[in-house]
Amino acid sequence: MFLIYVNDLVDDLISLPYLFADDTSLFKVIDPLDSDTTFNQLNRDLSVLSEWALQWRVTFNASKTVYMIISNKTAVPEYPDLYLDGTKLDKVTSHKHLGVTLTHNMKWGVHIDAAISKANKRLNGIRRIRFLITREARILLYKALVLPVLEYGNILYDNCALYLKQRLESVQRQAAIVCTCAFRTAGYAKLLSELGWSSLEDRRKYFRLTTMYKMVNNNVPEYLCNLAPTRVGARVNYNLRNGANLSLVKTNHVKTYNSFVPKTIRDWNNLGPIRNSLSTEGFKTRYKREHFGKPNPLFNFDHKGGNVHHTRLRLGLSHLQEHLYTHNLIDNPVCRNCNLENESITHYLLRCPLYATERAIYLAGLLNVVDANYLAELNDNDMVNIFLFGDPEFPWESNMLLFKMAQTFIVDSKRFADRPYH
Ligand SMILES: [Zn+2]
What we know:
Elements: H1 2-6, E1 16-20, E2 23-27, H2 35-55, E3 66-67, E4 83-84, E5 87-88, E6 90-91, E7 94-97, E8 100-103, H3 109-128, H4 135-151, H5 162-180, H6 188-195, H7 200-216, H8 222-225, H9 254-257, H10 260-269, H11 280-291, H12 307-314, H13 321-326, H14 345-351, H15 356-369, H16 372-377, H17 380-389, H18 396-413
Parallel strand pairs: 3-6
Antiparallel strand pairs: 1-2, 4-5, 7-8
Helix pairs in contact: 3-4, 3-5, 4-5, 5-6, 7-10, 7-11, 14-17, 15-18
The structure holds zinc ion.
């Protein structure tokens, strides 16, 4: 309804109006040599808005109307005031527009700080109930409640400062720890690979390139398509090897260089044949297949609560003496049960005399899944790998059996029973 109202609003304005739902913005570039004219025109447009509002019996709330001067300069000159309905408007240094907080110096700290704080609150909610729900449910909650908060507007703020990017990744790292119930010191790369997740940085690149695909193929509104530059080949009349590349945008400021259009054009030109995908869905599927890891649903499998410790063993950071020693958490890696050698996974699974009964059951079970000849070929390392990861060559059902047996061994050995979750 409101859109029908405001359609004729834009006709009489000198500044560029942006309308979205009941949110109206005016945008004007300040002429450095004649800023008075710029501000006179803005004041004139503001009174056009007032008159229009009067005519159509709607009100623009002057007390809620603000303005912001966007500039890279540290010292911004004094400019004339702006008025709506006789009320002097407040000048602000940041403003939330369609959920993205824009600031006067085009920095992203305010937006990202707010996103991180909201994401952390939600993540804490998941953390509190993490042992009451399955790993699959924890991942689902992260993807539904936390990740969208972290990623809202992410193709815009991708040129933010490095420390902000690192702070975003560290929220995802905490989320990965919550989802897997790993130790707090577990490494980010291992966690990502365990979950089949990509870094937020890589995901931003994927979102940027998907948007560029839509721009190049006219799948987004015109004002966005117009931002995509012409193809290199379109400007010259002979065949170029890089004819499908987009022309680079010349920039002289690092902020612009790393902003959406110039940065994404550089990435686009390095993309290869995937650019010629026939549909957006096709592009997305191919991009994900070529660049993203895949979650292994097997890793969500839980038998008798063995998932957490099975996961920790896979991440190489469990309560085994050798793991704690490698991470500088204790000063002696030797097995405290038998004192024969370091307590590695191999020792725990294949050699420690304390678990002889559980091991016999595990190995007997293994013979039900794989044949004896295959088993005889395996060395200790292969055995550990099957114990931790299953075998991608096996059918799903066999891997489920392997995981069930592995977790039965873990639970029945009671090796981690004294400190289940710390
Ligand atoms: Zn031992």
